[in-house]
Predict the structure.
Amino acid sequence: MTLTARNPRDPFVLTPYARPLQRGRGYDRLLNASALALALIGAVLVWAATRDLQRASGGDPQAYLYRHLVNLAIASALMFGASRFDARLLRLFGPIVYVASVLGLLLVFAVGSTINGAHAWIRLGGGFEIQPAEFMKLGMIVGMAVLFTQRAHERVMRRQFVAERVDETPHASDVLLAIGLVALPLVLILLQPDLGSAMVLAAAAFGVLVAAGVRARWTVGLLLLTVVVAIVVVKAGLLADYQLARFSAFTDPSHDPQGAAYNITQAHIAIANGGLFGTGLLHGPQTNGGFVPEQQTDFVFSVAGEEFGLLGGSVIIALFALLCWRGLKIAREADRAGRLVAVGIVCWFAFQAFQNIGMNLGLMPVTGLPLPFVSYGGSSMFAQGLAIGLLQAVRRASD
Amino acid sequence: MVEPRRPTGFRYRPPGARRLAIIVVLVTSMMITLLGRLYYVQLLDPHKPTQTAGRLHEGDIVVPAPRGLIVDAHGRPLVQNTSAQEITVDRETLQGLPDHGHAVLTQLADLLGTTAKQLAREITPCSPTVSQPCWTGEPYQPVPVTTTASERAVLAIGEHREDFPGVAVQTVTMPEYPYGSLAAHVLGYTGEITEADKKANPNLVDADTIGRTGLEAEYDSVLRGVDGKQVLQLNPQGYAVGAGKYVPPQQGDTLVTSLDLNLQKVAEQSLAKQITDSRRAGMPATSGAVVVMNPNTGRVVAAASYPTYDPQEFVGGISQADYAKLTAPSANDPLLGRAIAGQYAPGSTFKLITSSSLVMHHEINTTSLYGCPGSVTIDGRVKTNYDSEVLGDINLENALGYSCDTFFYVPEANEYYADQARIAHGKKPHEWLQRMAADYGVGTKPGIDLPADEQAAGSYADRETRQARWQANKQTYCAEARSGYKNVANASDRAYLTQLASENCTDGWRYRAGDNADMAIGQGETTLSPLQLAVAYSAMFNGGKIYEPTIGQAVKNAQGQVVRTIRPKVRNRVPVSQKLFNYIANSLSFSRGWAVSGAFAYIGSKYQNKIGGKTGTAEVFGQKDTSWLASWGPTSKDKHGNVHAKYVIVGMVEQAGTGATAAGPMLKRIWDYIMGAKKQ
């Protein structure tokens, strides 16, 4: 009771009496529906991509389909669990989530295993692997949201009865702290090296900074700094050979048709020949022929492009647009912390979808990134489930 | 709508709608960009890429061509093909089974007497991470696992096909040696293709067989044939989805040799019997060889070598254990074809060459008498006849017949001194004996149609080579002289070797009179292969021609047409008169009975008068004598009195005693067969 007496109206105070949850506000059904639709479309695409290869190598043709659906079920449970979470407890749990994610990243260096050139996975045994970078996206967004809200809150507390209106613009010290918060996981992920996850992390962080009202000189400055650093990194040869090869393949796919550019070329062939309606499910010669490596994960969009054509591809992009719209709607209606979380998650999904579909379409360089909800893969699916759940929690906490 | 519920001032104002609008704009533009790009790639792009790799491509399974036959002069196969039941395992099919073929492999392993694990390793395609044993062929090709499965195993697989999915039995042809080890060293053995072979000849594939030694190697390109192929349609993962055209293999051509199967058999049996007999007589008789040549054509009719091996062991790859057995020191190198690849001191059989040199250079003549004392002293060293026999003054005829050594020592020592005098006067030495030896082919590979490393060149010493060798080795000699051969147990051997080393150290460059005398009787550094000796003796009956002998006679294609005829080339003619040849042949005719040392075993035989021969008893340091006989027959004389012979047979048994005691009876059994005294 003494706790409440200190600041009865503070929305972040740890007491059930602070303000009863608005039970009236439920889930955003469209958000859930779009995520579920993407995941189900993903199940079909993953099945189409793996069926023939599995059969040819003597495995169960439906193995990937089943595991994708299992992943989806687990992700749904995580989503539900996260959505029941009281978003107002974010200030307490935010730092814990952040620290846990960073510890997960550090653990990779100790016991991690390497897949496709990136030392980014922790083997759990029984064929299960966890990619801590996926959870780090969530951890970083939540961490940043708490940081900005907490700092603003402290300033408010100091001038509680002095000012009628508090300047919400984060101070330079806030921004520097936030940059530190981002830099730590960013460096760890770049060391794996997982350029794709790092780019998503940066994009999400950028979204949070913008949404937090950080002054334009900061955001623009950071953008410029990123460009400069990127140029220096490439020029100084700090990238791994395979990353450089992917970049040169991106700029000129005919440069190395059997190596790094092979993925790009084969995915391009698949999508280009889909036409308006596609070849029909399970009728894509490029997909059935197994020409596109990693087709059930990073290049799953090429299955949609080939077998469902422009229509199918557009539906996927539209579903992402719908998902982002609902996320931003939640952001608009949320309180400050919830808004930052929602914007961060939306930016994450939007940029990752853009990067992934973009590389399928030859618009972006190849980085190992799954298409959210659609691609086969446990860790990403679970992290995305948690993220959707968190969006719902934010929505339920806002009035 | 929310304001009435909460007091203002404690709530943070939502960040400006502008901020969220920035995000909305960014997200929207990303989605629109994607849609635009998708639209372009799928509908607008005028240069849509197409799959150039081909949905299906073709792969070949090589159908190895059966190797050509090697037949004897009468067309009897010495190497033929036999069909074998080859069991293959199709990895693709196994992979498609629920347990990845584990049960099938376990069952199959039981039948074949191996383990499922071993089979699984054998059928796994090799890769940088998969080491031998592994499958080196194409991944889509059924892997042959054995050709030696029992009939029970083959039947079990054939009758219970449903239990063995992916396992097939097919008939393949394999080389077969119907007479086992017969003529093994001449025929040679085959082997599996190695990476080095493929580098040397890109047409070779793993399924092929390559001739490694002997005729199989020399005529490999003739015998190999042209591989056929089964074209398969493969999907992009390399799995076979259909069969294309089949190109049947073409069997290799047949090599007709000049070998006579029966004579070869007799030669080998006689050689083996002699080894047994000599050993029974207390001799080590470690090895031996026989060469039968037609002196008129230069063709080899038989070539035997003891010990021998069975080339069948090499078919389909020889096991490590078997190869170790063949190459163990106790096996005494059965892979060495001593008739052609071995070289040995020829002893008195060399006197053909010495006589040729001495007579043709008028150092002696065929009528005068020369001394045959029990011993002569040359260069301060006493050189004796065999058993220090004393024959008084004799002519060349008897010197050859009784095989007197001292008879030849003296003129060759004199030749040496004459040469030394020439050198002292700044002239080049004649070295007539060496030149004659070279004319007879000593020191040069005979050029027979076998791989170069399977024919010995023989050797002799002269001033130049002696000097060169001393330059190269004098440090070793001097070191050995200083150390005194401490590891040699026998005191007299030690003393001898030490003295030899110390002489070599100081005087090793010097070619001495004793060296020339040694060479005169086929000792010292003089060596020859049995084949070379046969070629040299053949010259007596063909007007002095030194042939590059052959074993191959013709190549016939599958239709039996001769596509190539192989003829021995005449390399050179020895500068020896027909008169001298006749003289030597007559001198050594067994018709002279006890007057010819080699006749010992033949006295009383019906064909004694039609055979001649020269024995040799070569001393080898630290070993028993090498027994030689160079013989010829059946002889005939033309109207000019020239002696002709149908065969020259040279026999050699190492560590078996005198020429008359081992090589003599050994060749007698062969002559018995040829002369029809004993029907085979």
In short: The radius of gyration of chain A is 22 Å. Chain A has 15 helices and three strands. The first helix of chain A runs from residue 2 to 6.
